[in-house]
Design goal:
Helices cover 71% and strands 0% of the residues. By secondary structure, the chain is an all-alpha fold. It is elongated and about 60 Å long.
Length: 145
Amino acid sequence: MSSLATTKTERVIRQVLMITDLILFGRLSLTLKVNWLDGVFVLFTAVCLALFVCAWIPWYTKAYRGLGIEEHFGKLAGFASYLAFVVCLSRLAGLTPLWVTLSLIGLPLAAFGLYVNCILIGHHRKDKDTQPPSFFAAGLYQKNP
């Protein structure tokens, strides 16, 4: 599944997700009645959007792109994009029990992932080491004498 999350499929899913989100937010703005289900959906979508932003920001130079926290952010955004895609499609199809269940399960998971991202960003900001990211995991130590 991790190899699937880093392919071009993820980009297509995110683009379709953005389109479905725009449709659903347009629908919500047209209706004056907003209940707690809409609040769960909006909160879930906002957390997923924050995960996408973390994955979109380049944290390292071009030579080390995709390593370290960028790899983690990408995989987490992949999970969130697939889950949000299913939630949005089920909401558009009118399958209320399905999208509510997935949102209530996915919201704590995505929020915990966002919390972990904040911790990793904090450690990344404090780190003064000049060693490249994922030095041992990516096998970069074999290239350096």
